[in-house]
Amino acid sequence: MRYPTLTQSKCAELAAKLASGADSAIEPHTLWIGHGDDLELTPIKGAANTITRDMLHWRDRDRDRFEGEASIRLYESLRHVPTEILDDRGFWRFLSLRYYWEFIAWREEDAFARGNYLKYVDASTNTESVLPRMYVRACAVGGNEHRSLASGIPNAGDFWRSHVVRVRTASAPVITRAFASKHARDRLTTDPLREAAKRLNRTWTNIVLHLYDRRDAEVLIDNIWDEVRGQ
To answer: Are residues 134 and 204 in the same domain?
Structure first.
C-alpha cells in the first residue's frame, strides 16, 4: 500500500509558511511510500473537516475536552490504516499539515501565537504532537465504545499527557478506563494526582496489568486513591 508522508525538514519549512499566514500547498512536497494501491484518504479528510467545523462552535472554554471528543473521531477515521503506516511519523506530519493545521492552531493557540508551533505538528513526540497524542488517547480508553471517558474530565490535559499517554498506562485500556473514571468521579489536585500516577507506574514493575479485568482495575485504582488520600 502506498501512503503519503512528509520529511521532518519539509514539515518544518511548510509549517513556517503556514504559521506566517502564507498559502502553502502540501501535495507537491508529499512523498508517497510503499507499493500497490493508494491509502484511502476520504475518511480521514471527512473526520478532519468535521473536527475543524465543530471546533468553531465549541462553547466550552475547555479545549482539552474537545480534543478528547475529537480523538475518538480521529481514531475511527484511521481504523482502516495498517499499523506500519501509523508507526511512520512522516504520515502524521502529512495529516497535521494537510488536513489538521487549522484545528491544531486552534487547539494550541497560545503556543502558536508565540511562534512555538513545530512540536505540535512534527510528530517528534506522542505527548506534544497533537494528532499522535489524540490517537494514543483514543486507543488508551478503548475507542468509540468508551468515547465519553476521553472527554469526561474537565481541564485534564496534564492528566492525559503526563499520566496516560507518556507512560505504560496508555497500553492498557482497562487500567486507563478505571484511572480516568475514578479521577472524573473523585478528582485529585495536582500533587496527589502525581503521587497516584507514580504509584500506578510502580505497580507495572511487578504486576502484568494488561491481564487485569475491569473489577481488578477498579480495585487497584481505588486502593491507590485511598493511600493517597490517607497521606
So the answer is: no
Are residues 213 and 151 located together in one domain of the fold? no
Q: Are residues 184 and 148 located together in one domain of the fold?
A: no
HSE-up of residue 148 (Cα within 13 Å, Cβ side): 3
For residue 231, pLDDT beyond 70? no
pTM of the model: 0.93
Query: pLDDT tens-digit profile of 145-202?
Result: 998 999 999 999 999 999 999 999 999 999 999 999 999 999 999 999 999 999 999 9
Q: Answer positive or negative: Cα dihedral of 219, 225, 230, 231.
A: positive
Q: Which amino acid is at 226?
A: D
Q: Output 207-213 pairs: Cβ under 8 A, ≥24 positions apart.
A: 209/168, 209/172, 209/175, 210/171, 210/172, 212/172, 212/174, 212/175, 213/174
By residue range, what is the domain housing residue 151? 3-166
- If we measure between CA atoms, which residue out of 198, 137, 197 comes closest to residue 173? 137
Query: Using CA atoms, how far apart are residues 87 and 139, in angstroms rounded to an integer?
Result: 14
Which element (helix H / strand E) includes 5?
strand 3-5
What φ, ψ does residue 173 adopt, rounded to 5°? -55, -35
- Alpha-carbon span 122 to 201, nearest angstrom: 28
151 shares its domain with 203: no
